[in-house]
Amino acid sequence: MELREDKIPFYRKLYLCGIFLICLLGILFFAIKNHILWDEIFCLLVMHILYFGYFLFCLMRKRKTHGLTYNGTSYQRLFVMMVCCWGLTIGFSYVPSFFAPMILIPFFLYSVLDGTLAISMGMYLTCIMCITCDYGIYIFFSYFLLILFGSMVADAMKTSFGRYPWVFGILTACGYALLTLVFYYLAFLSMPLSTAPMVGAVSFGVFLFVSLGYRFLLRIDYREERSVYESLLDEEFPLLQDIRRFSYKEYEHACKVSNLAGICAREIGANQAVAMAGGLYYRLGKVIGEPEVENGVKAAYNHCLPPAVITILEEFGALERFPSTKESAIVHMVDSLVTKIEVLGETTMANEWNQDMVIYQTLNEFSSRGVYDNSGISINQFLKIRERLVQEGDLL
């Protein structure tokens, strides 16, 4: 099987083009709404192309270096969130000056991007709105700080896996209210009572969104990851079809390893989906050819496999480094046993006692060499896996 050249899959190109067009349409909307002159529109378009070029470069680099929320993403959710952010920004332009809750923008961006990209996109949207709406310096700095404050809260809430939502909701609402009132006073050196109802109403809306809505956005992210693993295990997945066309024997071997790895992962409470996907594509580098590990990892990147699966492929056969996760250790055990039993042949393994001895000797040898010392598997879990493989001997 030949290794395909690095390229961006079609569906990723499609969503990236969609993001570019959404940003372009957003700029044109603001230009038409605020009667911007053609020379100013040209300057905005130059700024957009420059920013989007840097954004695209950083986005692709972050995905390849495991810097995104979920690196197996097709950018579909990013496209949806960009539509939401532009919709919010356009809607906020109709809100009276100083009162737009720009603090909400980072919560949408943080559900799909890391801190650097999320903050930069929030700043970009703020700049576009402030320039086209001809806002003053105090409004700009107010929205600037709201983006920063919202980013910090969104990041803290994300790393805490959505716990304590009411606390974060109150914190965000108070931050919005105080920053808005402070900059309003700095701009006009007065604080009319008429601002209180507006600030109070928007603050309450901010509280409701952060305490209820943001957790929903984070859950969508985890659902996407599950759906990606389901597609990886589907026999119609293109990469699996390539393996099948190259060698049906390799395909059968991969399916056998995947099935057993899933059983063993369930036995010790490890991630079953990761173990099954890792087992299915474990010998990808071997199928492609030398250098096995490098080619396997490269093909995995090209097909947007999840980081956990790529880690397993990086530790193929413990050739370059020993397994560093439970799932990687399980796949290594199962693949080694299946390969060894296939080499010995059906005649040698006809006796059940012979097969059990091969399982015990092989796994004990790996354990004594310290192959699984860094994987996080305890002695008790190792024994459970070994006994499960003995019980599932018919599947080997």
Would you write up a description of this structure?
This protein has 396 residues and is mainly alpha-helical. Helix content is 74%, strand content 0%. It is built from 17 helices and no strands. Helix 1 (10-33) packs antiparallel against helix 2 and helix 6 (137-159) packs antiparallel against helix 7 (165-188). It is elongated. The model has no long low-confidence stretch (mean pLDDT 86).
Structural class: mainly alpha
Largest sheet: none
Low-confidence stretches: none
DSSP helix fraction: over 70%
Q: Could you state the order of secondary-structure elements as H and E?
A: HHHHHHHHHHHHHHHHH
Tally of distinct domains: 2
* Secondary structure tally: strands: 0
Mean pLDDT over the full residue set: 86
Per DSSP, the total helix count is 17
Measured by DSSP, the beta-strand proportion falls in under 5%
Alpha carbon gyration radius: 27 Å
The separation of the N and C termini measures: 25 Å
Q: What coarse outline follows from CA principal-axis ratios?
A: elongated
